[in-house]
Amino acid sequence: MQIIVDSVIEGSFHGFDGGRVYKFINGEIWEQAEYKYLYHYAYRPNAQVIAERGAYYLQIEGLKDHVLVKKVR
């Protein structure tokens, strides 16, 4: 496991949903790459993108679940 991004989500976070886009305050943009639905509201939550076995996962502080993502920019 390697941390690729350790930053803050820009604005409001509304959980996971198919195709959702996540913008970080450092300018990076990641898109959800699997269908998973989980509603959780947070304003500017701390978040990490973690590389594990060739895939990237978004982990939000306070959530036990994570979601597969791909880098957009």
Structural notes for this entry:
- There is one protein chain.
- This protein is mainly β and 73 residues long.
- It has a domain at 7-47.
- It contains no helices and eight strands.
- It has strands at residues 2-8, 12-13, 21-23, 29-32, 42-43, 46-52, 55-60, 66-71.
- It has a six-stranded antiparallel sheet, with no helix packed on it. Strands 2-5 form a two-stranded antiparallel ribbon.
- A hairpin with a 2-residue loop joins strand 6 and strand 7 (55-60).
- It is globular, with a radius of gyration of 11 Å.
Helical fraction equals under 10%
Biggest sheet features = 6 strands, antiparallel
Low-confidence stretches: none
Number of helices: 0
Rg computed from alpha carbons, rounded to a whole number of angstroms: 11 Å
Content of β-strand: over 45%
Question: Got a strand count?
Answer: 8
Structural class: mainly beta
Please state the average pLDDT score.
96
Distance linking N and C termini = 22 Å
Spatial ordering of strands, largest sheet: 1-6-7-8-4-3
SSE order:
EEEEEEEE
Q: What global shape is seen?
A: globular
